[in-house]
Design a protein that fits this description.
The chain has helices spanning 2-21, 24-27, 32-51, 61-67, 77-82, 88-98, 104-126, 130-139, 142-148, 150-167, 171-182, 193-200, 207-232, 247-267, 273-282, 284-292, 303-306, 309-317, 322-344. The chain is an all-alpha fold. The longest helix has 26 residues, at 207-232. The radius of gyration is 20 Å and the shape is globular. Residues 353-359 have low confidence and may be disordered.
Length: 359
Amino acid sequence: MLLYIILFASLILCGLLEVSTVSDSIALKRPARKKLLYSLIPVCIILFFGIFKEVNVGYDSDTYYTYYWSLVDRYSWIDLATDFSLDNGFFAVLKIIRLFTNDWWVARAILFVFTFVLYWKVILTDSPFPTVSLIIFSGLGMLGLLCSILRQALAGAITIFAYKQIRKGSWMKCLLFILLAATIHKTALCCIYMLIIYFLWSRRFNVIRLALLSGVSYLAVLVAIPLLSAIYANSRYKDGILSDGGYGMLLFIVVVLGLSMILFRMTNENNNKNLNYLFNLSSGALFIQMGALSFALWNRIAVYFSFYWCLLLPGLLARLSLKKRILFFLIIAVLFGFMFFYQLSDVDLFVLHDFHRRV
């Protein structure tokens, strides 16, 4: 627990320093190298956290050794190019790593660093306050995702580059990135949602539309439960498919979306197309979480969309006056800090690796 406290304390201190010393006019124009200065200490702690974690601690940690790393040599490159029943993309990544090491701990560390760098690259370039983004990132449980749910973490990182392409107006490249991510984790196909809202909704969702789409999502999952149950009936996830997917997380998502709406009103950025798109994109977490109330496995999918709070909330903070920015920074820090430590009560992710034991 001490490492978690040190990590979050460094995030709060560095974040407070960043939002209180950088003016709003400079925050939106700073180059990435200057942004890195404030977040360097937390980033180093996160890298230490991910690299030196024991391999068998976390949600699905043992699963990746059993179902993937131990089987990677069984499949040839021809198999991966022709048999689409496999998680081809993930096996391809592991085969490349296998060229450099046979040690699963080293392989997992390489995978963690690579995935984190993909997320961090987008945060550093697209967020005016990267340290604030890391607070949100941590509160969303993304560190646990990167350390333990390796396939989805990597797939999610790739879908962020799909977002980068759609913001440039290149829907074809966006689709290609989504399909690439789906070769690693098929749930990434849900990110086609970013194309749908890009073409169909130019205005930000209001409360009524959020409520209607949430209801549609909930009813759609109820109708689809027999099909979803059949798909997962023989999988290793079968025991949890119909359990409670989290009313607490649903409440948290509603609170964050409400906070975002307040910030939109205070900043008068209602016509900012990029921020409006980020809001609509992050609203996908609400729709997914509504479905997760009946189909628990969906609660993992919500993180594909909740990640965009890491870009939306700092973008809104940067447009506030200094006093209001500090106030709302503290609100965000408390909100996501609570979620960070609440999720840690479920599982202790960090245990130092035993270097005398090899997997």
